[in-house]
Write a structure and sequence with these properties.
heterodimer, A: alpha+beta, six-stranded mixed beta barrel, 12 helices, 10 strands, 18% strand, elongated, B: 224 residues, alpha/beta, Rossmann fold, three-stranded antiparallel beta sheet, globular
Chain lengths: 394, 224
């Protein structure tokens, strides 16, 4: 029954009050952990998808109205350090029964794995590279939000391109990709390049996907392409996008932590209040301890340790609640977006929340610091009580 | 105690609780302090015990003047040299009897095994060996006071200060406590200063001091 044990016994004696204080602290920890887990999860998912395209990838997008031609593709292919240049044709189309725009991509079936990172099929297979109206369609086009099948392998699909109506035969359906690649595969229709060219004769390419020979020369190759095309092209490397994603998610996390920190102010004031009440209730008890020879320092420690214990338990409970909430949030968001119909507006990011040790550390540190600070003043007041006056109290 | 004054000041008005008290407490004596309410009995006890400091005068305990002690030194003095017994027992309600008894030893940082052994021994001495693990609320007033006595003895103090120790318990329990006090004085050579209203208890004491208005008005050996 030393100081730690005395602190603990006092907390235990006022069980409900202690639990409520711990919960107040835990709310802040829960918020930080669950929110940062979403951002971390999303970030890792984006980076993973980008990684599938390969860190040696460079995306050359046309800037302005003049598209890339076959000459441009050959020009890029012949540059030093370029392993391969794949032209990609794309435009927005509509499909009856789906409100959101769909991307029609003209690409050689051989280049599909490079474009998608890897080719994963839900059913069927890719199309032959011939000028015929066949298509490989994204998972969200084939299956609606409620899980009902719209299109199957072998069935026709009607595509609205401006005023024109086009019919393609579905050769296969892709697996779910989430937000991957240059444009979202889940809401894209892939057709043979030869047929695309036949549809829009001489329209040129909007995107050229370039692979560098190795990762080390990515920056050098992208610089060379930039010099060749000048202002005609925007050059993005996967490496650069990954850096950008990391930077943005770091900032979002910082913002979330700042918002969650306001809940710690409330928790801190709550703890201060409880500790003040606790000290006032125990004035006589403090008098007894001092009469028995406890020094000011000892009394101070009893209450500081109580603050510390509240902080530690708040972190632990917050960690448990945060982990639970973190894993519930994706389900809640998807449920909400289905009800409000937001789901189709942009491809939903498929991710699993990731609890980062860094944010766990930050949240625990803040909660312990806040409760320590909140207990410091009541503890000091308690330690300065005069034994005779304290014994007369109550 | 030499020329000890204690003056309380409330705003600009002074209230003297003790006015130049001179007294001695000898080793191995049982001293009773009596007097009407407000005569300064408790203040006297608090000053001897280092719970309060005199406004003027010296309090010499075994050669050291404790009136000049710092807060830390006074805390040590209270812990090792003095044992307190209060009218309302002042046990911590969330600790078991044995843990309450151990408390002064825990404050002195003595190992758990040693203090548990000693606490159980003292609870046996006051006849509560079988109730060591009860909480204060499960004990009668007399039993709680006996726990407090055991607690006051745990660091082997030379001096026990008892402030109305039987004020809140029935007369048969009061008799038991007086017998314990007598035994402590006779067998262990402890000095006891007891403040009381109950003149019936004086027969257990060796000497009597009467206080009135903060002054000693009479010192006598009670007729046994």
């Amino acid at each position: 029954m030393d100081l730690l044990s005395l602190s603990w016994r006092q907390l235990k004696e006022r069980r409900l009050r202690s639990i409520l204080t711990v919960l107040a602290v835990a709310v802040g920890v829960t918020t930080i952990i669950s929110a940062s887990a979403q951002v971390e999860g999303a970030r890792v998912s984006i980076l993973e998808n980008l990684g599938k395209l390969g860190p040696d990838s460079i995306i050359v997008t046309v800037r302005g109205r003049v598209p890339f031609t076959d000459v441009d593709v050959v020009k890029i292919s012949s540059l030093y350090g370029v392993a391969k240049a794949t032209p990609v044709l794309r435009m927005n189309v509509r499909i009856a029964g789906i409100d959101n725009p769909i991307t029609l991509v003209g690409i050689s079936s051989r280049d599909l794995p490079e474009f998608l990172g890897e080719l994963r099929l839900y059913e069927g297979g890719p199309y032959p590279d011939l000028p015929i109206p066949q298509a490989l369609i994204g998972n969200k086009i084939a299956i609606d939000e409620t899980g009902q099948t719209r299109y199957r392998e072998g069935q026709p699909i009607l595509v609205q391109l401006g005023q024109r109506q086009l019919v393609f035969t579905v050769t296969g359906v892709l697996d779910t990709y989430g937000a991957a690649g240059i444009f979202p595969p889940d809401t894209s229709i892939f057709i043979p390049r030869e047929y695309y060219n036949h549809l829009v004769r001489g329209s040129g390419y909007s995107v050229i996907l370039v692979k560098a020979e190795n990762m080390e020369i990515v920056d050098q190759v992208s610089e060379t392409i930039g010099e060749v095309f000048g202002g005609r092209a925007t050059i993005t490397t996967i490496k650069h996008i990954a850096e950008m994603v990391t930077r943005i998610t770091d900032q979002i996390n910082l913002l979330l932590t700042a918002i969650a920190s306001t809940s710690f102010i409330a928790a801190g004031l709550g703890t201060l209040n409880i500790m003040m009440i606790s000290v006032l209730e125990r004035v006589r008890e403090i008098g007894i301890l001092k009469a028995l020879g406890m020094k000011d320092r000892g009394v101070l420690l009893i209450y500081v340790v109580q603050g510390l214990l509240i902080g530690i338990f708040g972190s632990l409970v917050g960690f448990a609640m945060g982990s639970l909430v973190a894993h519930l949030i994706p389900g809640i968001i998807s449920g909400m977006s289905q009800r409000t119909g937001v789901a189709g507006e942009f491809p939903r990011l498929a991710y699993s929340p990731i609890i980062s040790p860094a944010y766990l550390g930050i949240a625990s540190l803040i909660s312990i610091l806040v409760t320590l600070l909140a207990s410091a003043y009541p503890a000091w007041r308690a330690s300065k009580l005069k034994p005779v006056e304290a014994l007369r109290y109550g | 105690m030499r020329d000890v004054w204690k003056i309380y000041r409330v705003e600009d008005v002074e209230y003297p609780a003790l006015r130049g008290v001179d007294m001695d407490v000898y080793g191995g004596e049982f001293l009773a302090v009596v007097g009407p309410s407000g005569s300064g009995k408790s203040t006297l006890l608090h000053i001897i015990g280092g719970l309060d400091t005199p406004t003027k005068g010296r309090v010499i305990v075994e050669g050291s003047d404790i009136s000049g002690f710092s807060g830390e030194k006074l805390a040590d003095y209270r812990n090792r040299m003095v044992g307190f017994i209060f009218q309302f027992y002042n046990l911590l309600p969330y600790l078991r009897a044995v843990e309450n008894v151990e408390l002064p030893m825990a404050i002195a940082n003595i190992s758990p095994n040693k203090r548990r052994e000693r606490a159980l021994e003292l609870l046996g001495l006051v006849g509560l060996g079988d109730k060591a693990f009860k909480r204060p609320t499960e004990l009668s007033g007399g039993e709680q006071q006996r726990v407090a006595i055991a607690r006051s003895l745990i660091n082997d103090p030379r001096l026990i200060l008892a402030d109305e120790p039987t004020g809140n318990i029935d007369s048969s329990s009061a008799g038991v406590i007086m017998e314990i006090f007598r035994r402590l004085v006779d067998e262990k050579g402890v000095s006891i200063v007891m403040v009381t209203h109950n003149l019936e208890l004086i027969r257990f004491c060796d000497r009597l001091i009467k206080l009135r208005d903060g002054k000693i008005v009479e010192v006598e050996a009670p007729s046994k």
